[in-house]
Amino acid sequence: MAKRTGQQRRERAAQMRAQREREERRRRIIGWTAGGAAAVVLAGGLGYVGWMAYDSTQINGLREYGDLTNEHVAEEVDYKQSPPVGGDHHEAWQNCGVYDEPLKDIHAVHSLEHGAVWITYDPDLPADQVKTLAGKYTQGGYVLVSPYEGDMPKPIVASAWGKQVALDDAGDDNLEKFLKSYEQSTDVPEPGAACSGAVDQTAAELEKAGS
User: Would the pTM count as exceeding 0.70?
Assistant: First the structure.
């Protein structure tokens, strides 16, 4: 084989260098593409996780009320909301639990001040739905469940201090979200105060007793 001239060697080196540069550019392009795709997948995944976290706490139809007074009074109070979400109330709170007759607002509102959630329902609500609502209370929990004879925007209303959601069905996911968000909330005038050891009578029982 004839020896390569200096010019041929230089041309060959230039060709090899050009090939290496082309291969390097191709690797960079592949790397950028793969990285971009991974970033899109990661961003999409994080976005989905973020959306799921947001959806798990978002309560549809939530209403919030501020500037609520919390003085102790002996007489009945004309609350602005029905059922009430806070305001002046009796010095004795309603014990948390399940009741089959309406309660006095002034006692239940005091329980809200302690971080309780009050689940009220239309007295004509079907028995299976009432049973579902009753199941939201567990021993030692901060939940009141009772029928309500006043005006309500829907058959079921869940109330916490300054918060309320109205529902059509006891199985609505928004009820569970409401409980998770506001049962024993620290965003109340008296967080951590008791929800037992006080009033355990219904409104009718208290009236009969002359209280």
Answer: yes
